[in-house]
Design goal:
Chain lengths: 353, 353
């Protein structure tokens, strides 16, 4: 059995469940190494992946005998088979943060479940700590992102639209070995930069623009996430000061990221810095990065996560003055024992193109 | 109040609920015309949209007084406010196919809900029937897709990779006024074509290849969905026969699509045609298209939907011989009273490039 499934089975014992239904495809990928929609059932007898014709070829190419996973095409699984899977299990764990209310009701009926137990992100908690293979994939995704940022500084010209730049990023990623983008790229210029969730528009880059670029590549399923804010032609003193304030905040936060640090305290100290200057932190300071670009831990004043060695998290303070401008600086960071390693290595000094 | 919310309120009365919690962002967009994550609450007093700082600017730009929607930034909503929203409602509808089991439990606590009612895709059912504005957006998305297909027939050359072609499609869409792709483009060449869910790879197009291209644009939020299977250089007789068989199936299915036709019967008659030739239909015949690229109705032998005027659905029979080849032909189709209109108008005769 692969070590991830083995480790999950040990954790299941600790919370006193003897079966589990996994349907989040990202968790299925984590546990089985394959990209398939369906149901992964962990029973006290076996590991069963029920998928459908669309994925059977992909699954058979990726799952090895060593994984100890029995694969079924859903069409060949009868109602009686469903009743049998958990017939000797007493407490079945569910992914309560993924499974819909309707699906939950359906599982209870279909498997005739005796007792269901909320597993409180059991698999997502395992996913927080990355192994060497996962780190090397994230590292590669960050490297491609860094190279792309270097390329962009030459590429971006006055008159191009935000959409054109976003598309060029995707093209660069794909040409350079990535699976594609890790999430929808944000290229927010001029007053659009004040929207933290801006979608690229047909707005053309102008001289004196500020441009927030929030982007990341996916490499063999693993994500990177980086934001840089750059300036076109020139930048006024007030904006320069604001930029350096955010950069200072981001640098100080990075220096606090290490094994055993409390995410909440790091976010709170940044919040004080913001408040002291009459600014507000309108979003979290950061989040975990892995198979999902947004995963736990969350680093914010409202979440409680202790950072641990081999977590990978972002650090992304931002300031937004509606209708005027926005500035955000973000890195993807590997948590180490005594310190941290910034995996996205692009320059953060104020860049004017 | 806008007509969609008014119409929803009437349907709520019919199923005897006097409140509803809407969190599916696509449903929020449908009802409010804005692109925001959060909660849209319909109570017996008012319509309330609770979102967060990331979306406030977007929301304020899109919601008009005529919509009669009260907008809150979630951060300013207290626990008491939550208790108040549904205090005078007795039965609250939920989106049981969207809300997770954990969120459901949370809503029950947070709003102190007396009784929740599964709404059985109430809003998704409304979304099946498109209004003139929605149809004109889907029509435009289809037109961009058709133009792109014409462009591709010149663009695709031996030696290009599947990924390059997929990216060129996205680039074309964006250059030509689309929001972007409606879903991840499939470009599956050679033996990859036998995977109905293929992801574009670095495989280079070769002479004698078959290429399945499944793609669609999104225009002002609305999707198109089209598949064409084309051939490089030459095509053998056996494959030509198979192509013409699928084309015949697709054409016959289209001729049956009209107001009051049963999706299941159309799919069943195609299944018989497949089975008569010892082939298997491994996926549904089609699905609704709108704000989501996959929405109800589903046209398959296992679903029961009666087609109605102004539904927009796909018709996409496909055949897959693992390790050898795949052929799929798909159109986006508007259901009319006595007939249907194929909105994706690209040629379906066998194309050799």
């Amino acid at each position: 059995m692969n070590y991830k499934i083995r480790s999950l089975r040990e954790k299941m014992k600790l919370i006193d469940i003897d079966g589990m239904i996994v349907t989040n495809p990202v968790n299925i990928r984590y546990l089985t190494g394959t990209n398939a929609e369906g149901m992964f059932l962990i029973t006290n007898k076996e590991n069963v992946l029920i998928t459908d014709a669309r994925y059977i070829e992909e699954v058979n190419n990726n799952i090895t005998i060593g994984d100890e996973i029995i694969v079924y095409d859903g069409i060949s699984v009868s109602e009686d088979d469903y009743l049998g899977f958990f017939s000797e299990c007493s407490k079945i764990g569910i992914e309560e943060n993924y499974v819909t209310y309707a699906k939950y009701q359906n599982y209870v009926r279909k498997f005739r479940l005796k007792e269901t137990v909320e597993t409180n992100n059991l698999i997502e908690n395992m996913r927080m700590i990355k192994d060497d293979d996962e780190i090397s994939k994230i590292r590669k995704a960050c490297e491609i992102t860094d190279n792309c940022f270097r390329y962009l500084q030459d590429f971006i010209k006055v008159g191009m639209t935000e959409k054109e730049i976003a598309l060029e990023i995707e093209k660069y990623f794909i040409k350079n070995g990535a699976d594609g983008v890790a999430f929808e790229t944000i290229v927010a210029s001029g007053e659009n930069s004040s929207k933290p969730h801006a979608v690229p528009t047909d707005r053309k880059i102008e001289s004196k623009d500020i441009i927030v670029i929030d982007f990341g590549a996916k490499y063999k399923g693993y994500c990177s996430d980086m934001t840089r804010t750059i300036f076109v032609g020139e930048v006024d003193e007030e904006t320069k000061n604001l930029y350096n304030f955010i950069l200072g905040c981001q640098t100080r936060a990075t220096s606090k990221i290490k094994d055993n640090a409390e995410g909440k305290l790091i976010a709170k100290s940044l919040e004080s810095e913001f408040n002291n200057r009459n600014h507000t932190m309108i979003h979290a300071l950061g989040h975990g990065v892995g198979l999902d670009v947004h995963e736990i831990p969350i680093l914010s004043t409202r979440s409680c996560f202790t950072l641990k060695e081999n977590m990978v998290v972002t650090n992304e303070p931002g300031i937004y003055l509606p209708g005027k401008l926005g500035i955000r600086i973000e890195d993807t960071i590997l948590v180490n024992k005594m310190t941290s390693e910034v995996l996205t290595k692009s320059d953060k000094k104020l860049i004017v193109i």
